[in-house]
Write a structure and sequence with these properties.
With about 550 residues, the chain is an all-alpha fold. The protein has a single domain (about 15-270, about 280-520), classed as Sodium/glucose cotransporter (Up-down Bundle), CATH 1.20.1730.10. The protein is about 75% helix and about 0% strand. It has helices at about 5-10, 15-35, 40-45, 55-65, 70-80, 85-90, 95-110, 115-125, 125-160, 165-210, 215-225, 240, 245-270, 270-275, 280-300, 300-315, 315-320, 335-340, 345-380, 390-415, 420-445, 450-470, 480-505, 540-560. It is globular. Mean pLDDT is about 80; it is low at about 1-5. It is found in: Membrane.
């Protein structure tokens, strides 16, 4: 970033703002030290001893996703594309979260596995387990780099430090509390960070709407801006998908984003599933993503709407949208809006909210990485049969190694104008084929162990091929169309390959698949308790999920 761009983005923080930031960091590190006292074995460090209540894991579930993807990526999308960005929440998140709660969590929690790759080992054997473990670990290092890059960028803008120094300092802060308190420190900080993020972005949204003349003023100004009134309707989202044909655009949103990418991310991504696995009962585990779904419905109003406001009120973003020369990109939209609108004091709270979001995202990546690396790679294939205390001591060291890796991958993220393009591409590589393998293996008992790893490898390869063809211009897929097509290709190739391989290889015996395949698992083993701490109509997962689904449908109809 050149000197002019840095000057444009410079936030005029005062002593009050810095004091608020310092107070926030004291709380964050304090949580890490307090969580340290409750750790006595590796299960405590990696899964919080499976002892947390649903409301804590539910808020942590959604806060873990409130990192760069939500704050910077979605505000950038809002500035560039407008209301179609809502699809990432109401089509590309909530339905998949409900599916995870009602269908998949009974298998994850009931099998008592410690990670998603461990479930793969039980269902498909060691080759699929190793492929999934390595691919998941690589994905978390890459995504942690995104959050770290943005966290360091804020420090760089505030203090003027070089980016490399900002990266190291920011990484050390997250490393400290995650290595100290393990998953509990990450989860309790994520609950704190959820409220800090909402407290930061809600005032920014309200002040921004006031500046543009309320909702009607925003509608009028967006209609007159490049992109026009199409940015005010969620459908057909042709600019977002890159498809000129409305039918293909809707198909891309529903199948590519709403089914493959969304279900692949929310149902198999251990970053999210780990929070539910830390719950104290199956009912609490099922309620975790449902509780998270309620705020997920409303978060776009404090993330996407500020991006849209920036698109019509921040001079640099207005110039960028009009095709003019600007020294900023869409990732800067929310920072520039904060610069223009927030007074000192409130600016400090907003900055704390941004830092909280990036730290929550990175801590979630680190806590899930260290669990998978320690249990599914190190313990399974490198150093086996050691006492539990050995793997507990491994936790902080693995966290430190992951942090170093994230520092390296942060520079990859710095090369993207819109980080959502990068992140959705990663999801098409890693999550889409994994979901295909999971969903087929869970409902088709004939699927074989060989098909498990072959499908994963070929599915991932097909997504990488689509990306390569789009990057070289062979396929014309602007916007985020490449990730939607890549995800669809990965899913279809994985399914077809898995079926073909299964038909010529030997499946596991039915007795080995109880608790892993839907048709072979007794209903009582898939049903949560409704007594004791799980009693009450408001603790019934199906009822809560029905309410969330009704709200989701209503929001899609209102903003059609």
């Amino acid at each position: 970033m050149d000197a002019l761009a840095q000057e444009q983005l410079r936030l005029d923080a005062s002593t009050v703002d810095y004091a608020l930031l310092a107070l926030y960091f004291v709380f964050v590190l304090g949580v890490g030290f307090m969580a340290r006292r409750s750790i006595s074995n590796s299960l405590d460090f990696f899964l919080s001893g499976r002892s947390l209540p649903a409301w804590v894991t539910g808020l942590a579930f959604i806060a873990a996703n409130l990192g760069a993807i939500e704050i910077i990526g979605m505000s950038a999308n809002g500035a560039e594309y407008g209301m179609p960005t809502m699809h990432y929440f109401w089509v590309g998140a909530v339905p998949a979260m409900l599916f995870l709660a009602l269908v998949m969590m009974p298998f994850y929690y009931g099998s008592r596995v410690r990670s998603v790759p461990e479930f793969m080992r039980l269902r498909f054997g060691r080759p699929a387990h190793l492929v999934n473990g390595i691919s998941f670990a690589a994905a978390q290092i890459l995504i942690a780099g995104v959050n770290l890059f943005l966290l360091a960028s804020i420090v760089n803008l505030l203090l003027g430090w070089p980016l490399w120094l900002s990266l190291i300092v920011s990484a050390l802060i997250v490393l400290t509390y995650t290595a100290l308190g393990g998953l509990s420190a990450a989860i309790y900080n994520e609950v704190l960070q959820f409220f800090v993020i909402v407290g930061a972005l809600l005032p920014l949204t309200l002040v921004g709407l006031h500046k543009v003349g309320g909702w009607s003023g925003l509608v009028e100004r967006v209609s007159e801006s490049p992109g026009g009134a199409e940015q005010l309707s969620a459908w057909p989202a042709t600019e977002l998908t890159g498809f000129g044909n409305s039918f293909l655009s809707v198909l891309g949103i529903v199948f590519g984003l709403g089914f493959v990418l969304a279900f692949g991310y929310w149902t198999t991504n251990f970053v999210e599933v780990q929070r539910a696995m830390a719950s104290r009962s199956m009912s609490a585990a099922q309620r975790t993503p449902i509780i998270g779904a309620f705020p997920k419905l409303l978060i776009p109003f404090i993330v996407v709407i500020p991006g849209m406001i920036a698109g019509v009120s921040v001079s640099e973003i207005v110039t960028l949208k009009a095709g003019g020369s600007a020294d900023v990109d869409y990732n800067d939209a929310i920072l520039l809006l904060m610069r223009d609108l927030l007074p000192n004091g409130i600016l400090g709270i907003a900055l704390a909210g941004l830092l909280a979001s990036f730290m929550a995202g990175m801590a979630a990546n680190l806590s899930s990485f260290n669990t998978v690396f320690t249990y599914d790679i190190w313990q399974s294939y490198v150093v086996r049969d050691k006492p539990d205390s050995y793997y507990l001591r491994m936790g902080p060291w693995v966290t430190a190694g992951a942090t170093v890796g994230a520092v390296g991958t942060a520079f990859i993220a710095s090369g993207y104008e819109n980080l959502m393009d990068y992140l959705q591409q990663l999801f098409s590589f890693f999550n889409a084929p994994l979901f295909a393998t999971f969903i087929l293996g869970m409902f088709w008992k004939r699927m074989t162990p060989t098909a498990g790893w072959v499908g994963l490898v070929l599915g991932t390869g097909s997504a990488v091929l689509v990306f390569s063809l789009a990057e070289t211009g062979v396929l014309d897929l602007p916007g985020q169309g490449a990730s939607f097509v890549g995800a669809g290709a990965a899913f279809v190739v994985d399914i077809v390959a898995s079926i073909c391989v299964s038909l010529v290889t030997r499946p596991k015996a039915d007795s080995e698949l109880v608790g892993l395949v839907y048709s072979l698992t007794p209903k009582e083993d898939r049903t949560a308790s409704t007594t004791g701490q799980d009693s009450g109509w408001y603790r019934k997962p199906a009822l809560m999920a029905g309410l969330v689904l009704a709200l989701t449908i209503a929001l899609n109809l209102i903003f059609d």
